[in-house]
Amino acid sequence: MAKGKTLLLSGEDCVLLRLAEISALATELRAQFETVEVVAYLRNHRDFLNSAVQQLIRMGFPISATLAMAKAAPETLEPLRVMSPIPAYGPRLRDWIEVFGKDNVHIHNYDRMCQNGQDILSHFYTNHLSEAAQMIVNKTQQRSNSRFSATAIDLLDYLHSRTPPMLNGQPNARFVFNLQRFFGQIPGPVFHVGEAFDRSCSVARDTDRPMLEAILSDESLENLYQDRPPHGDVSVAPLPEAIKNTFADISITAHLSQAREKFFAASNKLKLDPEDEIALGNLRVALFNLNAPDSLRSCASWLLREERYALAQLYLDKAEQVGAPAASLVKMRARLEHNV
């Protein structure tokens, strides 16, 4: 922490950093802050596996490829910068402790935290933010990650087969990303990856144990390693193709609605504060999610009126990329060229 300054750097991708990258990060942070602390939350191996596979499917990986990834050796995934869905906590934590020191790496048991009625946000707020930082951070109990049912995962996989993230080796501009609010509401059985992966998890956690014994408290280790009832494979009755098509069409509409909502909420904020960094960032998020030519054209028109020419250029380019006739963009492109 620098004098009068607190930086929160958070993200699951931190677990993908290699030792040299962790060292480089430490050098950069220590040059600017008096104290640097690392906070990690560990959950039991099986629940991590279910969560990681869900997340990969939500990102657009096909179910078959995701399950193959779960079976792959960590060294196979390392060049892809994808962490194995079957975790190896010990080596990852060892690298962070080696760089930052054991006293500066705080490890918490996610399962015990949940049993105590907390989530990561509330736990971190209470235990790791100074009083000064707490004054400027809005504490929330709301979970941002919706748990998807097995039915929702199956439907999402079908949607991504219709609009895959990559097309002919290039990013697909029509890809429909995640849809937390929409798919999070679809009921059904809890998603599990299956009994075969439970056995893989058992091997992984046994391999992890000697290293974790040197890192975790006895209580945390016991909680992480307590036996949980087997769940077995969960069967999901296949939905008829017509129903899947209907769900896919509805979800694409919901996706468009969310993106437009984000765009116009950001545009309203910018009327009050033209330099609002969060609002400007949300205009780029909306650009990523919008994939209807008419919506992209109307957003580009607003951006031109507000003289945000660089963003207008991006919106016009994507509108043409997803099928807007070039002739329908001529006037806006002419205005853009006149002002750039």
UniProtKB/TrEMBL annotation:
SUPFAM superfamilies: P-loop containing nucleoside triphosphate hydrolases. It comes from the Bacteria. This is Uncharacterized protein. It comes from Planktotalea frisia.
